[in-house]
Each structure stands twice: as structure tokens, then as C-alpha cells.
Automatic annotation (TrEMBL):
<keyword id="KW-0732">Signal</keyword>
<dbReference type="GO" id="GO:0046373">
    <property type="term" value="P:L-arabinose metabolic process"/>
</dbReference>
<dbReference type="Pfam" id="PF22848">
    <property type="entry name" value="ASD1_dom"/>
</dbReference>
<dbReference type="InterPro" id="IPR010720">
    <property type="entry name" value="Alpha-L-AF_C"/>
</dbReference>
<keyword id="KW-0378">Hydrolase</keyword>
<protein>
    <recommendedName>
        <fullName>non-reducing end alpha-L-arabinofuranosidase</fullName>
        <ecNumber>3.2.1.55</ecNumber>
    </recommendedName>
</protein>
<dbReference type="GO" id="GO:0031222">
    <property type="term" value="P:arabinan catabolic process"/>
</dbReference>
<dbReference type="InterPro" id="IPR051563">
    <property type="entry name" value="Glycosyl_Hydrolase_51"/>
</dbReference>
<keyword id="KW-0325">Glycoprotein</keyword>
<comment type="pathway">
    <text>Glycan metabolism; L-arabinan degradation.</text>
</comment>
<dbReference type="InterPro" id="IPR017853">
    <property type="entry name" value="GH"/>
</dbReference>
<dbReference type="Pfam" id="PF06964">
    <property type="entry name" value="Alpha-L-AF_C"/>
</dbReference>
<dbReference type="GO" id="GO:0046556">
    <property type="term" value="F:alpha-L-arabinofuranosidase activity"/>
</dbReference>
<dbReference type="InterPro" id="IPR055235">
    <property type="entry name" value="ASD1_cat"/>
</dbReference>
<comment type="similarity">
    <text>Belongs to the glycosyl hydrolase 51 family.</text>
</comment>
<feature type="domain" description="Alpha-L-arabinofuranosidase C-terminal">
    <location>
        <begin position="439"/>
        <end position="641"/>
    </location>
</feature>
<feature type="signal peptide">
    <location>
        <begin position="1"/>
        <end position="17"/>
    </location>
</feature>
Length: 647
């Protein structure tokens, strides 16, 4: 729900006014890329999430921790299904296929990632087969509830014995399905022979029509935040769980049949269809700049051997240099040529490289500052002096360089509303030389008497709540005030697949059905703040101290002010008189206010309806204001309101 209100509804009694005088100059620089995104392939945010592939388990990929499985494929017409490593594999990367045998019209069907969205649009598909068969393949999308067929096509077989052959097809539904409980089916007429299938793929139209691309509506939801950067490919996703398989850039490239996939950090085999090139396409398509994470020699867990020695780390430093050559090298370099061969002769745009993820955890701090970070910092800056290197510890224990080559750090915080608000001034005194980027933040637990830190063994919020979103607004304004020290902010995690998730709250929740996407209350705050950026912060002097009102002011040139404010923990409405230097009486201003619909009862948002479906509950109103004498705008905000005034 996202309603517009024409009038201000006030219930509480007003307290004494806050006078604020905003100067036109004299502040700190604002970060050119304050609001950004963080991506972690947490339970089906990538596969089954933003990566648009509709078929779940398309290539029977497996590994020691996650052996390949037939699930969720099902037999059709009495087919007998078996996984096989045939003596002739489809590829080295994809050795396992499904053997389908039986008699009559048989086949296999796939339910997608908890459903398949069927619309009147063109779906493109492909699959590989091995086995002598001269008949036809019949492909369809149909309801698994009513068995209504929405699209089908028939394809002559090119299948051969002892050799893999690719088939490609299109499906164009005649009408949209009423829900996403649909399945994809391949059938053939079997007279006793058998066929092996592998790499069975089906894509809907993707964002900007990228082959092997992303889901349009989830990309549009990201775009609407006006993001400026994307931190990728994770977080914990980089590191590899106890299973010790870090993310490997060089195994996520090229044709899908050459990608083995990898045992991911979140308990399943990743297809790696969303690979390094796709992450860069994602950045290009959203026009955001990448912050590239590289593995820094620490696996998750704390047991012996989870941190590499300097000697064992050296090949990984070289591997990172190879990766950077792939991204930045010209076409005459080894890896630049590889990039060109994959269709991108121009180097990618990259200015920021983050070494690892949260390397202060799991006893990683000492080795990180002693040798792990310096090895990467020295090698990378020697080869690429213009790259900014970011440490992952969130403090300044691992540092490199000074001046324009000074390293930055990535600070993460998961918190409670009161605690985050109390940290409004956190960045007032941090380093200006070694800058901070906030690669992950979120309010995840409710306030608790005498407890300020998050208790990780206790439940977290199921969804972002409004009091948390207001606290996030307050805290991000504290960062914006220090835009010369804090270079970016990214809420985390970005995505939640409502059918399978391991972490809540999340910014955007989704299912296979695009109509069920939920943009959280935290999303609404970031959307408002990210759409109202400024080039420079300016002094905003008040006769009131911060709390319950918090604010930041900035400009985008003469008379173009952006004033942000949020009210947290007030017992009454708060009247403002904000005077902007250089603004004449009669100048128009626009005040956009976000609030919870039911005022002070702010802890049930987003909320679930009776069927367990998450619904949005943020409200937004826009007021037109006119400056009084002296360039003063008067307005009033209620408790737990977040507002932006622009002139
Ligand atoms: C295929 O080979 C892999 C790797 O050797 C093995 O783990 C897996 O069990 C094999 N699968 C089948 C169905 O034989
Ligand atoms: C597939 O399974 C059938 C039935 O078990 C078997 O006859 C056939 O040889 C298998 N195909 C391959 C390629 O091994
Ligand atoms: C179709 O629905 C039936 C239950 O009605 C379920 O058992 C089956 O797993 C579903 N199959 C697919 C492919 O979704
Ligand atoms: C349709 O699919 C959704 C999600 O996959 C599931 O929760 C729901 O129960 C299904 N509906 C029916 C009627 O099977
Ligand atoms: C990818 O790089 C790693 C580390 O350098 C190496 O061990 C591995 O063999 C490479 N994989 C491929 C497919 O080249
Ligand atoms: C690559 O090498 C060729 C041949 O030496 C040269 O003509 C070309 O300018 C080089 N390209 C780049 C981008 O350096
Ligand atoms: C590094 O930055 C400087 C100054 O912006 C620029 O002149 C130079 O070309 C850059 N070097 C590389 C290798 O990108
Ligand atoms: C909000 O109000 C409660 C109750 O008065 C108080 O305990 C808490 O410290 C306040 N929080 C902030 C951030 O002002
Ligand atoms: C909370 O802290 C106050 C002051 O330190 C103390 O008096 C009180 O007993 C504490 N309450 C609880 C529930 O621990
Ligand atoms: C995450 O996904 C994997 C694979 O689908 C599944 O085994 C695991 O249970 C999921 N976790 C949760 C909490 O749903
Ligand atoms: C600029 O940063 C300093 C902290 O170094 C802070 O005290 C000041 O309020 C900031 N100025 C503005 C205009 O936000
Ligand atoms: C700020 O000044 C205004 C008068 O301009 C006054 O009404 C108000 O009470 C003052 N607020 C505080 C918190 O002192």
C-alpha cells in the first residue's frame, strides 16, 4: 500500500518549534555515491531470484557437500528417471544428466522456483539430448492446478546416440496464467529407447533483453532506488562455508555448459549462471558502479586451517590480479583477450575493490592486518594505482597508503532502533583520509531494555518495521552529514525469496510471481533519500539539539536545497521553521513525508495478511509549501515521520 495524502493528519500536541538556519555554503563534500546496493546470493536471491532462469536444477549440478539430485523434476507418463554420468558427458563442467526411459508419451516436468510466471510474452528455451530418437519433442507451459495449457510447441528431434545435441525453442503463451503454479514439460514418444537430457533452460524476457539476464521487475525495483553502486558478489557468498569452496571468478564465465557451479554458502549448489560477467552487465544496466569483492583467504567457521598462511595465500593474490586483468586489461592481455572473446572488448568500469568480507570475525583480524590485507593492497596498487582498495573489517586496523591511494574500510552494522538512533553522531569524528563505506546495515531486532547489541541467538524481525526504518533514516542522515568521510551506504540483505530464506528482515521480498513483490518500509526510506541527493552538505544551525528531530541539509547549487529530517521518539508533533539563505519569500518548496499509516503503532510493518503474505504499509504524502519572509518554510511533523523538503 502506498497512498498519497493531500492533508496533514495530526493527533498529538505540538511542542516548541525548532528553528533551523541553513547556510548556502561552508559544509562538507557529499559523497557522489551515497546510496547503493549490496548483493548476496542468500537463499535463492540469485538462482531462483534476480537471475531470470525459470528452471530449477537445470543441469543436475552437484558437489561433495550438495550431491546432484533429480529434485524438483518429476516424471510424466510413467517415465523412469535416473541420474547418470554418461561416458560421454555434455561437458567437463556438467557431467551428470537425467536418463528418461519408458514407453509411450513420456517426459519430465519442472515446477520452476516455486512456480513459473506465465504471461503473454516470448520465452526462449534450450536443452541438450543424447540418445537415438527420430520423433518430435513437445514442450509446454501449463497450470499444475487445472492442467490448462498456456503455451506449447513441437520440435523435431536432432538427438543422436553417443553425442550431445542442442535444441532451442520458443514458447509464446496465448494468455497469461492466473497464478504462478505452472510447470514446464518436455515430452516425447518413446518406443522403448531412452534419452538423456541436460542443461534444460527457459528464460522469460530479461531486463534490457540481456541473454542470460535478470528478472525485469526486480531490476526495476532496484533502479527505482536511484542506486549509485553495487557491492558484489557478496558477503559471505565470497567466502565459502565449512565446505571450503570460495567463489571463483574464473569458473563463472563462458557458455553455461562450461560452468560447473559451486557449493554456495547458503546450503545449496549455485549454478553460477549469474557469474562475473553478468554482475558487470547488471552494473552497466543499472548505471551503478561496482564494488568488487575478492576472497581474502578466510573461510567461514573457526576450525584449524580456516585462515590461509601467507604462502598459501600468494596464488590467490595472483588470482585476483588475473581477475582484475579480466576486468580492466586491454584486449592484448591474456585475460583481457578472454573478456573480449566473451563479447566485451572494452574494459569494464571499476574503481573499487574490497578485500574479503568481515575479516575481523572468526579470529581473522590479526592475520588480516598483519599479512592478508597488505598482500592484496600492495599487489593491487602496484598493478593498478588508480584502484581504491577497501578493507573489510569496518575499522582502521588494516590500512594501506595515504592521500589519494589511501585504503577505505567497509563497516557493517545490524542493530536495534534505539541503538541505531543513538549512533547518529558516529561518523562525526572518523577518519577523513581513510574513508568508510557502509556495505551492510539494517535494524533487525526490536528495542530491549538495557540491551543495546543484537542478540544473534534470538529471533530477528520477520520484515522491516517502521520504527526500524525511521531509525535507519536517522542514522543514514548522520552518515550524509559526513559525506566527506562516509562514501556509501547499502542496506542488507537486498532480497528475500519468500519460498526459501535464511535471513530476515530484507529490503525486497519476492516470489516467482512478480505481482507478489514487496518493497519494504526500509526500501521506501532509501527510495526517498536516494532520490534526493546533494553535492555538498551545508551548515544547519538550530536552537534545538538533535533528538527527537534529526536532520541534514545539502545543496545542488544556488537555492537548490535538500533538507532531510526524521522524528524518532517524540511525545508530540514537532513544528519546524527552516530558513534557507538566499531563498526569497514566495519561493515554492515540496515536502514529501513518509509515515506509518496508524501513527504510533509502528512495529507491525511490513505486515503479513491472514494468509501469511507480506503486505506493504508505508504511506506517503506530498505538501506544497511557500517560503515566508526571510526564506522560512514552516511545517509540522508527527512522531515517526521521515521527510524531505526540496526548494
Ligand atoms: C557423477 O560423478 C560425480 C563426481 O565423480 C559423483 O560425485 C557423482 O556421484 C556421479 N553421479 C552419478 C549419478 O553417478
Ligand atoms: C538410460 O537408462 C536405460 C534404462 O535403464 C538404459 O537402457 C540406457 O542404457 C540408459 N542410457 C544411457 C545413455 O546409459
Ligand atoms: C503438481 O501438483 C501436485 C499436487 O497437486 C504435486 O504433487 C506436484 O509435485 C506438482 N508438480 C509440479 C511439477 O509442480
Ligand atoms: C501455488 O504455489 C504457491 C507457491 O509456490 C503455494 O504456496 C500455493 O500453495 C500453491 N497453490 C496451490 C493451490 O497449490
Ligand atoms: C580457476 O582458478 C583457480 C585458482 O587460480 C584454479 O585452481 C582453477 O583451476 C581455475 N579454474 C579453471 C576452470 O580454470
Ligand atoms: C593490441 O595489439 C595490436 C597489435 O600489436 C595493436 O595494433 C593494438 O593497438 C593493441 N590494442 C590495444 C588496446 O592495446
Ligand atoms: C589514473 O588516474 C589519472 C588521474 O585521474 C589518469 O590520468 C590516469 O590515466 C589513470 N591511469 C589509469 C591506468 O587508469
Ligand atoms: C526512546 O524513548 C525511550 C522511552 O522513553 C527511551 O528508553 C529511549 O532511550 C529513547 N531512545 C532514543 C534513541 O531516544
Ligand atoms: C537496567 O539498568 C538499570 C541501570 O543500570 C538497572 O537499575 C536495572 O536494574 C536494569 N534492568 C534490568 C532489567 O536489567
Ligand atoms: C535454503 O535453500 C536450500 C536449498 O534450496 C535449502 O536446503 C535450505 O533449507 C534453505 N534454507 C531455508 C532456511 O529455507
Ligand atoms: C561536517 O563534518 C563535521 C565532522 O567532521 C561535522 O561536525 C559537521 O556538522 C559537518 N558539517 C555539516 C554541514 O554537516
Ligand atoms: C526556538 O526558537 C523559537 C522562536 O523562534 C521558539 O519558539 C522555540 O521555543 C525555540 N526552540 C527551542 C527548542 O528552544
Amino acid at each position: 500500500m502506498f497512498r498519497q495524502f493531500g492533508t496533514l493528519l495530526l493527533s498529538a500536541i505540538a511542542v516548541s518549534a525548532i528553528d533551523i538556519h541553513v547556510s548556502s555554503t561552508g559544509g562538507n563534500a557529499s559523497s557522489p555515491h551515497m546510496y547503493g546496493l549490496m548483493f548476496e546470493d542468500i537463499n535463492h536471491s540469485g538462482d531462483g531470484g534476480i537471475y531470470a532462469e525459470l528452471i530449477q536444477n537445470r543441469a543436475f549440478q552437484g558437489s561433495v557437500p550438495f550431491p546432484s539430485t533429480i529434485y524438483p523434476w518429476e516424471p510424466v507418463g510413467g517415465a523412469v528417471l535416473a541420474l547418470q554420468n554418461t561416458s560421454v558427458p555434455l561437458s567437463k563442467a556438467l557431467p551428470t544428466s537425467i536418463n528418461v526411459s519408458g514407453k509411450g508419451k513420456i517426459g519430465i516436468s519442472n515446477p520452476g522456483w516455486w512456480g513459473i510466471d506465465v504471461k503473454k510474452q516470448k520465452y526462449t528455451g534450450s536443452f541438450w539430448t543424447m540418445g537415438a530418437y527420430k520423433g518430435k519433442f513437445s514442450l509446454s507451459l501449463h497450470s499444475n492446478l487445472t492442467h490448462q495449457v498456456f503455451a506449447n510447441t513441437v520440435l523435431p528431434s536432432k538427438s543422436k546416440s553417443g553425442k550431445w545435441t542442442e535444441h532451442t525453442f520458443e514458447l509464446e503463451p496465448r494468455e497469461a496464467a492466473p497464478n504462478s503454479n505452472n510447470t514446464f514439460t518436455i515430452q516425447f514418444d518413446c518406443s522403448g529407447e531412452s534419452i538423456n537430457f541436460n542443461l534444460i533452460s527457459l528464460f522469460p524476457p530479461t531486463y534490457k533483453n540481456r541473454p542470460n539476464g535478470n528478472r525485469p521487475e526486480l531490476m526495476e525495483a532496484l533502479k527505482a532506488l536511484n542506486p549509485t553502486f553495487l557491492r558484489m558478489p557478496g558477503g559471505n557468498n565470497l567466502e565459502g562455508d565449512v565446505s571450503r569452496y570460495p567463489w571463483r571468478w574464473n569458473e563463472t564465465l563462458g557458455p553455461l555448459k562450461d560452468r560447473p557451479g559451486r557449493p554456495g554458502t547458503w546450503s545449496y549448489q549455485n549454478t553460477d549462471g549469474l557469474g562475473l560477467l553478468e554482475y558487470f552487465h547488471w552494473c552497466e544496466d543499472l548505471e551503478v558502479e561496482p564494488i568488487l569483492g575478492v576472497w581474502a583467504g578466510m573461510f567461514l567457521g573457526t576450525e584449524e586451517g580456516h585462515i590461509l598462511s601467507a604462502e598459501a595465500l600468494a596464488p590467490w593474490v595472483q588470482d585476483t590480479l588475473n581477475e582484475l586483468e579480466f576486468i580492466l586489461g586491454d584486449v592484448n592481455t591474456t585475460y583481457g583477450a578472454l573478456r573480449a572473446s566473451l563479447g566485451h572488448p572494452e574494459p569494464f568500469y571499476l574503481r573499487y575493490v574490497e578485500v574479503g568480507n568481515e575479516d575481523n570475525l572468526n579470529n581473522g583480524g590479526p592475520s588480516y592486518s598483519n599479512y592478508r590485507f597488505p598482500m592484496f593492497y600492495n599487489a593491487i596498487t602496484a598493478a593498478y594505482p588508480n584502484l581504491t582498495i577497501i578493507s573489510s573489517t569496518g575499522d582502521f586496523t588494516a590500512l594501506g597508503g595515504s592521500g589519494s591511494s589511501a585504503s577505505w574500510t567497509d563497516y557493517h552494522i545490524y542493530s536495534r532502533p534505539d541503538n541505531l538512533v543513538s549512533r547518529f553522531g558516529q561518523f562525526d569524528k572518523v577518519s577523513r583520509e581513510h574513508k568508510t563505506v557502509v556495505g551492510e546495515y539494517a535494524v533487525i531486532q526490536e528495542n530491549k531494555k538495557n540491551v543495546s547489541a543484537v542478540e544473534w541467538d534470538l529471533p530477528k524481525y520477520k520484515n522491516p518495521v517502521w520504527s526500524g526504518a525511521v531509525a535507519e533514516a536517522v542514522w543514514t542522515m548522520g552518515a550524509e552529514r559526513n559525506g566527506d568521510a562516509v562514501m556509501g551506504l547499502a542496506y542488507a540483505p537486498g532480497f528475500q525469496n519468500l519460498n526459501s530464506y535464511q535471513w530476515a528482515p530484507d529490503l525486497i521480498s519476492f516470489t516467482a510471481n512478480p505481482a507478489q513483490t514487496v518493497l519494504s518500509v526500509s526500501y521506501r526510506v532509501i527510495e526517498l533519500f536516494g532520490s534526493n541527493t546533494h553535492k555538498e552538505t551545508v551548515p544547519a544551525v538550530s536552537n534545538s539539539s538533535f533528538g527527537p528531530a534529526y536532520w541534514v541539509a545539502g545543496t545542488n547549487g544556488p537555492s537548490k536545497y535538500v533538507f532531510k529530517t526524521a522524528i524518532y521518539n517524540s511525545t508530540a508533533n514537532v513544528p519546524f521553521n527552516v530558513k534557507f539563505d538566499g531563498i526569497a519569500a514566495g519561493t515554492k518548496g515540496k515536502l514529501t513525508v513518509l509515515s506509518a499509516p496508524d501513527g504510533l503503532s509502528v512495529n507491525a510493518l511490513n505486515k503479513e495478511d491472514g494468509t501469511g503474505v507480506v503486505v506493504e504499509t508505508t504511506e506517503k504524502r506530498v505538501q506544497d509549501l511557500t517560503a515566508k519572509d526571510g526564506g522560512v518554510f514552516g511545517f509540522e511533523l508527527a512522531n515517526y515521520e521521515v521527510a524531505v523538503l526540496t526548494t
